[in-house]
Amino acid sequence: MHLLFTPDQIRAAEAPMLAACEAAGDPDRLMRQAAHGLVVHIARAVTRRPALGEPIVPAPTSVAEIYSGGIGAGTGYSPAAGYSPVSSLRGALIVGLIGPGNNGGDGLYALAGLARRGALCVAVMVADRWHERAAAAARDAGVELLVTQAGGPLPGTVFERASRWQLCAATAQEQVVPQAGGQLPVTVEELDVWALLRKADVIVDAVLGIGAQGGMWIPGWDEETQKWAVVGDELKALVIAVDCPSGLNTLTGSADELVPSAHLTVTFGALKRGLVVGAGREKTGDVYLVEMGLKTWLAAGPMPRLVTPQEADALLLAPRAGDHKYSRGVLGVLAGSPAYPGGAVLCSTAAAAVGQHDAGRGGVGMLVTAGRGETGASVVQALPEVVNVDRAELLSSAWPAAAQKATAWVVGPGIGTEPEDCEPAVAVMKNSQCPVVVDASALSLWEPESLLASRGDGTPIKAVYRDYVLTPHAGEFAALAQRLGVPTWDPLQDPLEAAYDLASAVNAVVLLKGSATVVAAPDGPVFVAASAAPTLARAGSGDKLAGVVGAMLATHAARALSSGIELSQDRIAELCAAAAVLHGVTYSIDS
């Protein structure tokens, strides 16, 4: 698993390394190391050569748009719309937008390396100051350095080597800036930045780093140019972010409309929280990590963790010799209603499909549905192996034998608001002695205090609530938190903290659905699943996710029961995150 760090933790880890470089008389050593990794990724992405390993976080694009052969397949980089790869880096036009700080320094050193490989590199300085040593290295390598006058606009066209490049003739009268000798950088009176960006093969976003947030407003640029990466359909370029897209909040993942969207983000040292969750998931594209030796200095502790597809797949349990259908896990599903009959079918078929790609590894041994009328019959028609019981029988003190065998339940997908469906759902939440996934309509029925009181068996509160997994999307999350009187962060602005706040307050595992799904245990780690494509934003995806989560919990709960142990909340949270990853990979491809 990859740990997710805050910007402050990254800076604290970098401090002793930077001090050592300074003491050794080479203050830019780490910057050049980062730039080298950036150069390698840019060079390979420009020519669509195989990527260096799989992205830590795959771009949230539809699978049809990923030419790498599958999500995170590691054979290429996600493309820009309309981008035509070049056969060689030599002659490719690479434009760097360079900010005043260390992020700009990283970009300048990277442009220097790319220029030495034959690329035509232009550095547009967007502020009235820059990293002096990096700028000198870039100019020595042949990078064109262009700066606004006092941060003002550069409309028009003119380059030191315009006759060679024929870049962008935005005025009838082209001017050629004379060689500037040792002056640094060249200052031009007229430059159409937007035209230059449209000509570029690659745009390197090196304006703002992990310490900045709030968008990349560049003084003097008109509104159209400010949104250069937002209206990306007009660009043929690959947009590559240095460490993070400029202006992204790397703590929370929040971003305003001026934060550019990258096809590829090359981040340094460790993975930042905001690159994975919230708007950061959508802004970063494929995220690759350049190791910088920070692990020794990074703070220890229960950090949020990103679950990879490989780690999720490893949590699928293989059947053991001597297993039978009950020991492999029995999942109970109370889903669907006459108004929403499809909820039961979607949830049950997704649960039954878990592990089927791998000879049944991870699959449940038995599926029990609690149907009403045609809802149960429709599931049996789709899955003849399912055992269906009458939903109303769950209101009695003696449950049907099949329902008593459940090692996990899913309650809620498509049950609506009718008493005939809601009352049995409440009965399962009150009386089940195994993990219960509370989804969709059932979230509005979940009442922690009344559930505890109704048990009346003296069970400690922690043991009572440990078995519940709440699975809201952002809207359901806000409604649930308000109904329970729990103050939380906005789930859209800071999903990591929001999920943890609610989990801690109600002492249940919370799975907050989104483009990146966040799973929080009350006293333990927070997990992130970031494998889903936008194609999953469709009706029924949540029903399928609930089924996959339920199947994962049912198999592990059965294995734990046979070993005489209980699943901890931390383990339940990890399994839920793994299920979300598997759901994202499986159904993104199916979509």
UniProtKB/TrEMBL annotation:
Gene3D superfamilies (UniProt xref): 3.40.1190.20, YjeF N-terminal domain
E.C. code: 4.2.1.136
Reactions listed under catalytic activity: (6S)-NADHX + ADP = AMP + phosphate + NADH + H(+); (6S)-NADPHX + ADP = AMP + phosphate + NADPH + H(+)
InterPro entries registered for this protein in UniProt: CARKD, Ribokinase-like, YjeF_N_dom, YjeF_N_dom_sf
Gene Ontology biological-process entries: metabolite repair; nicotinamide nucleotide metabolic process
Cofactor(s) in the UniProt record: Mg(2+); K(+)
Keywords, sorted A to Z: ATP-binding, Lyase, NAD, NADP, Nucleotide-binding
Pfam families attached to this UniProt entry: Carb_kinase (PF01256), YjeF_N (PF03853)
PROSITE patterns assigned: YJEF_C_3, YJEF_N
Residues binding AMP, per UniProt: K513, G514, S515, A516, T517, G542
Chain residues that bind (6S)-NADPHX: G414, H473, D543
Domain YjeF N-terminal stretches: 10-300
Domain YjeF C-terminal: residue ranges: 308-591
A GO MF term: ATP binding
Function recorded in the entry: Catalyzes the dehydration of the S-form of NAD(P)HX at the expense of ADP, which is converted to AMP. Together with NAD(P)HX epimerase, which catalyzes the epimerization of the S- and R-forms, the enzyme allows the repair of both epimers of NAD(P)HX, a damaged form of NAD(P)H that is a result of enzymatic or heat-dependent hydration. Bifunctional enzyme that catalyzes the epimerization of the S- and R-forms of NAD(P)HX and the dehydration of the S-form of NAD(P)HX at the expense of ADP, which is converted to AMP. This allows the repair of both epimers of NAD(P)HX, a damaged form of NAD(P)H that is a result of enzymatic or heat-dependent hydration.
The protein's assembly and partners: Homotetramer.
NCBIfam families found in the cross-reference section: yjeF_cterm
Protein name as catalogued: ADP-dependent (S)-NAD(P)H-hydrate dehydratase
Species: Pseudoglutamicibacter cumminsii
